[in-house]
């Protein structure tokens, strides 16, 4: 890798190996590795493809299948265990535990579906999928939390990008399984078992928290990552559309997968480019560095304000996990775990998340059965799932980048963006409740976009209101409302209403439940009442989030990133590169 530096030099041939080690230890390589780990962390969004296979091979009705869907959502969203483990163990341990859980959970499901083991009981299947889905919290905690701590002033952008790659993971893994296994939903479960686990193992030692430094060109680099991810998303969308029009051969799928994986490695070259300047600055004599840019090159600790010692004492008093539970600090300071969980702001976020994400998860989990009930072929149903995955990505990066821009430029509260996203989600639910030809395509786009947009907003709001000291635990606690909402809306509402309609259709034919192995409902009435309820619940969630907008409007009018600039090492070079290599070690 040859690059330029402020002195015009580059990386010499005999320096390639030391430079490669330098890149691997750099914080930009941590970002690249996190992108790949996130690419494998969205297996839960593929449930709509292989759920039909579970239902058919094990003879489940829709209520039982939705119960499995609830435990999938429970595992995917209750990440308190991973957060607490991350508080006391290194990041590599968190990633390895998640890798083992992912493989164990999904591999057992694959063995059950393929008949290689005796038919498990329902509670065992629920346990398997809960364990497998819970593994993604370990990937999130290991990669996502580490990157937010390494780039606190770009947290909205970082969260949008990382969760965006999670959104793309469904479409990426769909193409990969079609290339390796063909159109075989059973093999997709096997892919979900080994692929994310392998990614975490490969990059296990490259993800770690580093010393906080401030790099002026940081946002520009993130935009370069964004452009790459947009190209990947557009390519996946084009491929998805073409697959609906023509029949792809195994070779064509292999070619598409090769292109996708090449593009996924483009961020590595961006990371290496950023490390070239750092490498060359590291070789410069101190005197030469000082002569070039005496004020900018020399990293210096910004002088703290006069009352900083008082602030530190206040933080020490209030940031303990269990101390001063009801004596809460100001918004933006480091809350203790119980201080945050028992605050009114967190309770409002919990209720809005229960309504918004609970309804969105219900829609995504039932997408396969929705397509089946409306008479769409299997290949088209896979297209719906891919569309949700791709627009899930667009929602995540849009909410991350746009909310950050609106916050920095116009001081618009991030919770207001959440309100707008929930209102948009209502439209998607109503399109399924009252379907017209092609409306499921539009609904897939809207639901995917709004579902994706909610998560980066939720995680960013938690980090801004409650600080980063216990962020590993708090962001996992914040999404616990999602599986509760999923259980109420998916199992107790949507599943029961679907089965009721299916039993009505059997009764018309003079049959009962024991007459069929698989309980199936056909027609637009199967999900009409369910999605009217989902739309109403989501609208209520939007109204609840408005309360948080009012409560936090004064906080967001201030400079919420000021304290990070006061403690960061300011590093500005002629090439806008990070000139403090010691911060990476």
TrEMBL record:
Keyword Membrane: yes
Taxon lineage: Eukaryota, Viridiplantae, Streptophyta, Embryophyta, Tracheophyta
Protein name: Protein NUCLEAR FUSION DEFECTIVE 4-like
Location, primary (coarse class): membrane
Entry-linked SUPFAM superfamilies: MFS general substrate transporter
Location(s) in or outside the cell: Membrane
Source organism: Juglans regia (English walnut)
Membrane-protein topology: Multi-pass membrane protein
GO cellular component: membrane
């Amino acid at each position: 890798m040859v690059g330029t530096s402020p002195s015009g030099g580059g990386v010499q041939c005999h320096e390639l190996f030391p430079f490669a080690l330098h890149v691997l230890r750099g914080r930009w390589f941590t970002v690249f590795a996190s992108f790949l780990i996130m690419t494998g962390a969205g297996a839960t969004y593929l449930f709509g493809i292989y759920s039909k296979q579970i239902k058919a091979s094990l003879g489940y009705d829709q209520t039982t299948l939705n119960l499995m869907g609830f435990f999938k959502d429970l595992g995917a969203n209750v990440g308190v265990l991973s957060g607490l483990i991350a508080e006391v163990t290194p990041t590599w341990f968190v990633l390895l535990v998640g890798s083992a859980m992912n493989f164990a959970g999904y591999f057992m499901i694959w063995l059950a579906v393929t008949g290689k083991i005796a038919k498990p009981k329902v509670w065992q299947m629920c346990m398997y999928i809960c364990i497998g889905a819970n593994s993604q919290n370990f990937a999130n905690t290991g990669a996502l939390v580490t990157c937010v701590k390494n780039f606190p002033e770009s947290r909205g952008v970082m969260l949008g990008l990382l969760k965006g790659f999670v959104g793309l993971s469904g479409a990426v893994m769909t193409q990969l399984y079609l290339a390796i296994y063909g159109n075989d939903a059973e093999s997709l479960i096997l892919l979900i078992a080994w692929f994310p686990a392998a990614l975490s193992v490969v990059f296990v030692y490259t993800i770690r928290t580093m010393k906080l430094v401030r790099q002026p060109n940081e946002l520009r680099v993130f935009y370069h990552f964004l452009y790459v991810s947009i190209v990947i998303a557009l390519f996946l969308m084009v491929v998805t559309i073409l697959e609906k029009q023509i029949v792809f051969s195994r070779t064509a799928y292999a070619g598409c997968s090769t292109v996708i994986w090449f593009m996924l490695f483009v961020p590595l070259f961006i990371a290496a480019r950023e490390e070239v300047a750092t490498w060359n600055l590291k070789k410069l004599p101190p005197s030469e560095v000082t002569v070039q840019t005496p004020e900018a090159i020399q990293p210096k600790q910004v002088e703290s304000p006069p009352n900083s010692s008082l602030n530190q004492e206040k933080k020490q008093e209030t940031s303990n996990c269990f101390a001063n539970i009801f004596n809460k600090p100001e918004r933006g300071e480091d809350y203790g775990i119980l201080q945050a969980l028992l605050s009114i702001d967190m309770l409002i976020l919990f209720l809005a998340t229960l309504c918004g994400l609970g309804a969105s998860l219900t829609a995504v989990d039932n997408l396969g059965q929705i397509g089946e009930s409306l008479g769409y072929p299997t290949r088209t149903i896979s297209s719906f799932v891919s569309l949700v995955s791709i627009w899930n990505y667009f929602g995540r990066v849009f909410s991350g980048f746009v909310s950050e821009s609106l916050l920095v430029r116009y001081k618009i509260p991030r919770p207001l963006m959440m309100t707008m996203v929930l209102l948009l989600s209502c439209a998607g639910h109503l399109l399924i409740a009252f379907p017209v030809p092609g409306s499921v395509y539009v609904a897939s786009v809207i639901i995917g976009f709004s579902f994706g947009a909610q998560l980066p907003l939720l995680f960013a709001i938690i980090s801004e209101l409650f600080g980063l000291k216990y962020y590993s635990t708090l962001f996992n606690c914040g999404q616990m409302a999602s599986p509760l909402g999923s259980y109420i809306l998916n199992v107790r509402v949507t599943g029961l209403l679907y089965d009721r309609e299916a039993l009505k259709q059997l009764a018309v034919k003079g049959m009962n439940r024991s007459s069929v192995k698989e309980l199936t409902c056909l027609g637009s009435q199967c999900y009409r009442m369910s999605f009217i309820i989902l739309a109403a619940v989501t609208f209520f969630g939007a109204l609840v989030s408005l309360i948080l907008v009012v409560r936090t409007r004064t906080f967001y009018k201030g400079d919420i990133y000021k304290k990070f600039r006061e403690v960061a090492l300011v590093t500005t070079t002629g090439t806008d590169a990070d000139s403090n290599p010691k911060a990476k070690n």
